[in-house]
Amino acid sequence: MAEIAPFRGILYQPRPGGDVSRFLSPPYDVISESERAELAASDPHNSVRLILPKDPVGGDTDARYPAAAQLLAEWLHDGTLRRDDRPAIYRYHQTFTPPGDRAASPVTRRGFICRIRLHRFEEQIVLPHERTLAGPKADRLKLKRATRAHLSQVFGLFADPTCSIDAAFATLDASPPDLHGSTGDGVEHCLFRLVDPVAQDQVMTVLRDKRIYIADGHHRYETMLALRDELQKEPGYLGPASSVDYGTIFLCKASDPGLLVFPTHRVIHGLPGFDFADVLHRAAAFFTIEERPTPTAAETRDTLAKKGRTAPTFLLAAQGRAAYLSLRPDADLSAVPSLKGPCVLQKLDVTLLHALLLEGILGIDRAAQEAQTHLRYIKDTEKALAESRAPGVQAVWLMNPTPVEQVMAVADAGQVMPQKSTYFYPKLASGLVLNPLDPREPVDRVPSFQKWP
């Protein structure tokens, strides 16, 4: 199934000791304008200048893409960035303290960065789990097209219940990293180069019978496919052995103890005729309802988790009022059009939230959701509760996270969830490894079980 390969990545040249903190940034889609300015000011070579190039003042906004390409070329020329001499699979550790729990001990999420042969979703090798938006895909494609590089990775999961992949990385995991750095969210990032061909073959062999589930980066993956299709038409394209037939991905075991998933809450605003009491009245056809004083963030998480073990449960918070809604055991979902299909969808909190409450009661249909009309998203529970009292906000729907097992089950069923259904924490750092694209360049190493003529 999945075919991965090592590659000669482009990496920052670190300070003595391997520290690259000053170059790292979060993924482009979680950086606010103020955060972008702060990162760009922190160092003239911070990766945010590549992944989120600034619009020219008073000029064509599309000019930022060739400007990023020029910057990449300059950094390669002056030695800020350098391409590795040997193909590697890049072992990647992220060590962090889970947010919201001050007593928690640090945990480490382990995975690796590699190339992966690109497949369309209908081929059932790389599987999505949520819908995408047109705007981000157009932006990412223009940037990739200009820079001829994958500047960051898709985040993928694979099932490995026996942990057979770990043996290939055992020596590296006990060694000092080649590069390390911390980001503003308190996460420590460590990168190691796996260059031993025998160990690389071990990793490639384990993945050969696996499906890959996209955890984060659906937009990036779809733009990798689009750019591949463009580059395949260029002179010198080598066919299936060309490096442009591969994307860049971070792969993590679905059972990794450092794999955390948090919810993304929904903020409602500007909706004509919104009325808290009417929403609860109409929701009573499907949910048992318990009104309470607005809880704290900790109480919200605890109560949602407790109630969620019995039935899908949400908290509706609106201008000082709050109510928990739990799906009734006798709720008749058969007449809800958007819940037709595999039964796995009827067990998902996020699908029920969108189908029964956002669409069915509030009238925010799928097109409006994709356009984010009357709807926006917020990840932090404490901030979400504060937002529920903010001027201009009508309500906030708070929910439990989607378990990894459900994410994979939805993908296996060939289904997708609404946008922002999952929030895998922490985010991958941008700036660790860049993957150059050239249709005339062969992939660095193919698996021993796959040889091209």
Radius of gyration: 23 Å
Strand content: 15-25%
Query: Can you give the mean pLDDT?
Result: 92
Low-confidence stretches: none
The chain-level structural class is alpha+beta
Helicity, as a percent range: 25-40%
The major sheet is characterized as: 9 strands, mixed
Per DSSP E runs of 2 or more residues, the count of β-strands stands at: 21
Distance between the termini: 20 Å
Shape: globular
Tally the helices: what do you get? 13
Folded structure, characterized:
By secondary structure, the protein is α+β, with helices and mostly antiparallel strands. The protein contains 13 helices and 21 strands. It has helices at residues 33-42, 48-51, 64-78, 134-147, 166-173, 197-207, 218-231, 276-283, 297-308, 349-359, 366-370, 381-387, 404-412; strands at 4-5, 10-12, 81-83, 89-96, 107-117, 126-127, 149-150, 154-158, 179-182, 188-194, 212-216, 246-253, 260-262, 265-269, 287-293, 313-318, 321-327, 375-378, 393-399, 423-425, 435-436. Strands 1, 4, 5, 6, 8, 9, 10, 11 and 12 form a nine-stranded mixed β-sheet that branches. Strands 15-17-16-19-14-18 form a six-stranded antiparallel β-sheet, with helices on both faces. The protein is globular, with a radius of gyration of 23 Å.
Describe how the helices and strands are arranged.
Layout: E1 4-5, E2 10-12, H1 33-42, H2 48-51, H3 64-78, E3 81-83, E4 89-96, E5 107-117, E6 126-127, H4 134-147, E7 149-150, E8 154-158, H5 166-173, E9 179-182, E10 188-194, H6 197-207, E11 212-216, H7 218-231, E12 246-253, E13 260-262, E14 265-269, H8 276-283, E15 287-293, H9 297-308, E16 313-318, E17 321-327, H10 349-359, H11 366-370, E18 375-378, H12 381-387, E19 393-399, H13 404-412, E20 423-425, E21 435-436
Parallel strand pairs: 6-11, 8-12
Antiparallel strand pairs: 1-5, 2-3, 4-5, 4-10, 5-12, 7-21, 8-11, 9-10, 13-20, 14-18, 14-19, 15-17, 16-17, 16-19
